[in-house]
Amino acid sequence: MKVKIINKSPHPLPQYKTSGSAGMDLCVWLEEEVTLEPLERQLLSTGLYISLPPGVEAQIRPRSGMSIKHGLTLVNAVGTIDSDYRGEIRLALVNLSQEPITLQDGDRVAQMVIASYAQVKWEETDSLDETDRAEGGFGSTGRNQEV
């Protein structure tokens, strides 16, 4: 799939680092370094603008290494870039650690996964089909349950 992209930053386009990668790293585009204090949130630029085809979204996810090593993650955990959005991709970062985190221009802080989606049309009803799981949720799967 080809996707049109505008890159106003001096950084390379997002790219897959290995043949099995699902996500492409995203870099911050900063005029000067930014320090996030513990629990501080900031919306930071990437300089990227994309045009996705209908039926496709870009999922913006935290980078696992940054999350576990530094406590840096996304405020909205997984953000969605809709196919009709044409604004800049910006990253809502939060520092969940107990120490300040300083970011430099070009730091890889998130990743983008391109995924297909389906839109639904609701069909109101008074009942749903039966399943073995039924209403079990929040830890109910994988346990032996008497029926």
Topology:
Layout: E1 4-7, E2 23-27, E3 34-36, E4 41-51, E5 56-62, H1 64-70, E6 72-74, E7 79-81, E8 89-95, E9 101-103, E10 108-116
Antiparallel strand pairs: 1-4, 2-10, 3-9, 4-8, 5-7, 5-10, 6-8
What features would you describe in this structure?
The structure is a single chain. 5% of the residues lie in helices and 37% in strands. The relative contact order is 0.25. With 147 residues, it is mostly beta strands. The strands form three sheets. It has a four-stranded antiparallel sheet. The chain has a four-stranded antiparallel sheet with strand order 2-10-5-7. The chain has one helix and ten strands; from the N terminus they run E-E-E-E-E-H-E-E-E-E-E. The mean pLDDT is 93. It is globular, with a radius of gyration of 19 Å. It has a domain at 4-8 and 22-116: Deoxyuridine triphosphatase (dUTPase) (Deoxyuridine 5'-Triphosphate Nucleotidohydrolase, Chain A, Distorted Sandwich), CATH 2.70.40. It starts with a strand and ends in a 31-residue tail after the last strand.
Question: How would you summarize what this structure contains?
Answer:
The protein is mainly β and 147 residues long. The chain is 5% helix and 37% strand.
